Give the backbone structure.
Amino acid sequence: MITIERSPSLAGSTEDVAFIPFTLPDITTEETTAVVDTLESGWITTGSRAREFEQEFAAKVGARHALALNSCTAALHLALDALGVKRGAEVITSPYTFAATAEVVRYFDATPVFVDVEPVTLNIDPTRIERAITKSTRGIVPVHVAGFPAAMDEIIDIARHYHLPVVEDAAHAFPCAYRDRSVGSIGDCTCFSFYATKTITTGEGGMLCTDSDALLDRCRIMSLHGISKHAWNRYAADGTWSYEIMAPGYKYNLTDIAASLGIVQLHRAGRMWLRRREIASRYNGAFADVPQLQIPHDDQAMQHAWHLYMLRLNLERLTCDRAVFASELKNRGIGISVHFIPLHIHPYYRDLYDFRPDDFPVAYHEYLREISLPIYSKMDDTEVDRVIDAVLSVVEHHKR
Ligand SMILES: *Cc1c(COP(=O)(O)O)cnc(C)c1O
């Protein structure tokens, strides 16, 4: 959707400039056709398309199993349930993330134990994890912020030493690799998101990946009312009418309508990723030598998914703060966002645990100077250039 807004920076001009949205899904007629085929097939909820999506996704990330779900939040919730998180347990994660990562811990009346991030990648700082481990710790949940992988070697070492499972919040991290390993094949369980803004989308959707048969079984059962047989088996011609309720489960299954969209997105994921990488490299080229700006960290040994392009402002070299910088980009017709307002400064966590902003100083201070720029495969070069020009012009107006 393109909204047309007159840019105040062009006051007096008769020209209308199209607003560049912060994010847009990349949906082609291939996806539309696949969805219509499913709608006309007679089976629209979880069935053969969801199974096919699971198998292809598992193969792509090198996991033994994948379970298609209606969100990444659902995947994180089911993973913690399967790993035995209960009331009073502690789960280590980072405050530099979206609501979902910690709220799933609160579903169990358990405690998210925040560990500050390290300033280069904004991922959980592995050197601070050990100090946060107690007798109640039941797992570690690293987040691959922006699609750059967390320090998995260090995290897995600590987890092994303390016999703790690792559940990765990989909502930003497809396709992503840590050295020669795809994210999805590293931790005990990896949770992906197919929300509308993510690198591949099913509108709403998620995928849980694991090598463990037992974890998969528990998550599959709990994803559909705690029933031990899948709907596909229950109602297929050769299925049986019998089923058993094993636990009070949830309603987290992905529809075949969504899965058929996901299968096409999965096939196109490599091409969409190449385009995002191209946009990142154009931004990097334009901003690397500007002292007012800090470009995102990258590393040749890793595959950055480039879900987000997180630019940081060197505020001491600017006469404005991030809020002014952001609103001036908006005035120039550029959609931006901020990732993330750290969880510990939100009223719920602040009041529940009596947090102060400086309890996690890196997360808090990096948040104050972060602006995310548009980066999606539907952007053309003219739009990328307009973003670059707008950023450089705001810098020019406010440099110290
Ligand atoms: C989007 C997001 C989620 C939640 O994904 P859903 O599929 O919307 O549930 C979880 N963690 C992070 C870091 C996210 O950005």
Residues 71-73, 97-98, 100-101, 143, 169, 171-172, 193, 195, 206 surround pyridoxal-5'-phosphate (CB under 6 Å). Residues 166 and 394 are 42 Å apart (CA to CA). Residues 1-14 have pLDDT under 50 and may be disordered.
